[in-house]
Amino acid sequence: MKRPRPAALAALLAGACTLAACANSAAPAAEQATAPVITTSVPAPAKDVDTVDWNVPAGEPPTLDPALSAIESVSTVAANMCEGLFTLGQDYRPEPALATALEHPDPLTYVIRLRDGVTFWDGKPVTPEDVVYSVKRVLDPKLGSSWIGWAAHLRGIDVTGRDEITVKLKKPDIVVPNFFAMPAFFVVQKDFAQAAGKDFGTAKGGVMCTGPYRLGTWTQGQNIVLTRNDAWWNRAARPKVKNLRFSFITDPSAQSAALAGGDVDGQFSVPRAAHDRLAGKGRLLYGQSLATTFLSVLNQQGALSDPATRQALQALIDYKGITASVYRGTAQPLRALVPPAAWGYAEDVFQAAYDKLPEPVQDLAKAKRLVSGSAKAKEKIVLAYTTAIEEETRIATAIADAAGQAGMSIELKPLTAEQFGAVFSAPQARAGIDLFLASGYLDFPEPLAYYQFFTTGNFYNFGGYRNADYDAAIATAMVTADDAARARKVAEAQAIMAGDLLNIPIATQYVNVYYAPHLAGLVPRQSYLNTPWAVALGGA
């Protein structure tokens, strides 16, 4: 989904610096730019562990309601407790979970068979009514779930049998089945949620799900403890860790010290500055991610109304410097908004289209020429970014510095994590912002799922992008079942967006995880945000 990646590496730099200067203050840029080894498998855990202490760098979650799990602080924890009808396997392909079968009798109908004998943590059986309630709860605008976006073409969802629900669409939508494995279809107990009311998901109200871990205790400001659900239906994947204790250390230096000292056993999204310190202590692993860091045009008036301004912005970004010194080699420059790792099908089609897009390189001379010929390009641009992600503070600062060299005027607008999140949900939070630096990620490898958010009128189309040819290409792709044909239409839309520069892609980061040497089993994948990742973890 198009949403923030608030992995709160919460500290501003002590002072601004150019990318070259930052690189020289640590290891040489060439050394930092060396791509890490990608891990696709690790030895399975050999023994049980009583307790694992895991840090959530985004800080304490505001809720554990799975319907509100669009940010890492929530999803990292909730994904181990709550389940959907399907889940994502190691290759990101849907696998049965609370459902065992999916039928698609016509382009507008999906019939889902539910697994028999599944119970909630309190022992009560999961019913089709619980499933329908959970989905409709997400669709209630009053809840404020960002997962509502999947249902743009939904006609209805109903109980149609003792162990069956049916989803009906108004028009075909090839992306919809992917969401059956997402929090849009995570199941909560109807009676429990209704009784808890507005307290559902909070430390006071709790949650009631079916997954491998149940909520034990939540001591606000300190930790959340999950306890193994020994009655979990999936006997073949019984967790080897009995208790998961989550802490909320947000300062990068404190994270590094806690991990290196053994006070914390593991963490996703480890600060780059800590990588060298941790490399010889435990397992610091990297995986391909579905994430993208980019500039997004929020205001198509003013300076950014002139294509020359957007072209100048694209030309002044130091892509190699960002991957070398900011991400320290754990990222790659991007030619398109959706990264190659998210091409889940027809890779040859996507690769050919990707290769036709211009390679992202810094060209300050070009940027200066464009600015000199455009009155609009000299007008002030307000660039917003979050201070909760150290890397993005550095990127925003570097872009503003390079813009100044090209004759542009960029005013930086730092946002707290809370303000940053509001930009994705409240129009008033976007007021006064021209340009937005953000990191998002795809939940599954379907490029169409991301590109559809920029069609005219879409909820996530914050900049009000309008291009009839783009809309037409996406609309055709949405109803095209053949993979190669769909990929060609998505690639067509991708090329149109790349030409219009509504978004300026910068880099795709590798997902990373660190865990202590006494642990084993966990492979870093983007899907940790929506799947019970702790099930793979255990003693070495």
From TrEMBL:
Keyword annotations from UniProtKB, A to Z: Signal, Transport
Signal peptide positions on this chain: 1-23
UniProt keyword Manganese present: no
Superkingdom assignment: Bacteria
Residue ranges annotated for the Solute-binding protein family domain, each copy included: 94-458
Protein's cellular compartments: Cell envelope
Pfam families for the chain: SBP_bac_5
Keyword Signal: yes
PROSITE patterns documented for this protein: PROKAR_LIPOPROTEIN
SUPFAM superfamilies given in the database record: Periplasmic binding protein-like II
Predominant cellular place of this UniProt entry's protein: other
Family that this chain belongs to: Belongs to the bacterial solute-binding protein 5 family.
The protein's name: ABC transporter substrate-binding protein
Native source species: Nonomuraea rosea
